[in-house]
Inverse folding.
């Protein structure tokens, strides 16, 4: 018996996948699972994997993900899924035959009565089994299969890879449209070089605990956050501070209308818009002028936000 995941007592409607980003395409599938479970008076369930199969099988240690596992869990639960099962993906798991996977995991552990899954889903050792085999197994093990058609999937035209590429290009507009929410990062404020205050722009330097979290392209961004339960805005610079000939990557945010010691505090910054590339300025005064211009631009942006 597999002890990596809990046994679900109530029968469920299940979907399976990595769901990195939990983007609008994923959300549509999860919504179908929730609705179908309500209709059949069953639990709605998701089987997802962490670490990412590509980290384990292809040893892609430098793959970056849209969501940390904590973010993924929170978003999926917010969508109304009753049972979220995170399987600690391993080589051993990947070697299960289709029969073993269905019997040991889906039936004995997850108590599956219905599976809602994309037309191109593959499973079992070397991903040899397809939805046709899944339907065959359904007859034997008494579950039904609802296939999400190619047309339904293509209609959304969104993928985790497209979002990763948009973030690498600093394309926040596309990223946020595909995610159905702003891209965000959460980290703890660290001590920096102590230069920010001297420049008139103190910046909270965030350390992100999850090394696999995707950091957007270097540059300057408008962000939103919350502090003491209140919405605040800021401008974030992601980069190496080339004006000061630094090389280490920093994620630092100047918050508007705030003057407090923030060291050790946790912030989640939501990316709203990219302003410009990070530049190497000839003088510190040129950098300060650029930050003043960023500030004016951001203030106009925020004013227009509250109008809509
Ligand atoms: C809105 C904003 C824009 C920035 N743009 C640049 C830039 O284009 N080039 C650069 O070298 N540093 C840029 N910086 C980073 C400053 O150089 C940085 O805040 C300063 O080095 C302070 O670092 P410290 O927090 O470690 O003291 C920017 C910072 C902010 C807040
Ligand atoms: N409006 C603000 N935005 C960001 N940080 C602020 C603000 N006001 C005060 N701070 C504090 O100042 C620190 C940043 O000052 P800075 O001179 O840039 O130092 P450091 O190099 O240590 O980041 C932040 O970590 C925070 O504790």
């Amino acid at each position: 018996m597999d002890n990596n995941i809990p046994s679900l007592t109530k029968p469920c409607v299940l979907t399976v996948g990595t769901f990195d980003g939990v983007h609008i395409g994923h959300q549509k599938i999860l919504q179908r699972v929730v609705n179908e479970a309500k209709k059949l008076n069953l639990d709605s369930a998701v089987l997802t994997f962490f670490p990412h199969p590509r980290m384990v099988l292809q040893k892609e240690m430098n793959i970056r993900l849209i969501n940390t596992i904590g973010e993924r869990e929170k978003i999926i639960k917010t969508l109304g899924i009753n049972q979220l099962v995170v399987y600690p993906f391993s080589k051993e798991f990947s070697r299960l035959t289709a029969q073993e996977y269905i019997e040991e995991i889906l039936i004995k552990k997850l108590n599956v009565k219905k599976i809602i899954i994309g037309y191109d889903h593959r499973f079992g050792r070397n991903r040899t089994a397809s939805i046709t085999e899944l339907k065959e197994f359904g007859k034997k093990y008494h579950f039904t299969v609802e296939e999400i058609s190619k047309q339904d999937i293509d209609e959304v035209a969104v993928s985790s890879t497209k979002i990763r590429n948009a973030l690498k290009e600093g394309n926040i507009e596309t990223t946020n449209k595909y995610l159905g929410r702003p891209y965000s990062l959460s980290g703890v404020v660290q001590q920096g070089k102590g230069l920010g205050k001297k420049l008139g722009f103190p910046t909270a330097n965030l350390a992100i605990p999850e090394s696999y979290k995707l950091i957007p392209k270097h540059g300057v961004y408008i962000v939103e956050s919350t502090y003491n339960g209140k919405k605040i805005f800021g401008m974030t610079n992601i980069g190496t501070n080339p004006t000061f000939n630094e090389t280490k990557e920093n994620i630092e945010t100047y918050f508007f209308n705030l003057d407090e010691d923030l060291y050790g505090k946790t912030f989640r910054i939501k990316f709203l818009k990219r302003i410009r590339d990070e530049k190497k300025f000839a003088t510190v005064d040129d950098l300060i002028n650029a930050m003043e211009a960023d500030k004016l631009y951001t203030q106009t942006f925020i004013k227009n936000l509250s109008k809509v």
The first strand starts at residue 12 and ends at 16. The radius of gyration is 23 Å. The chain has a mean pLDDT of 95.
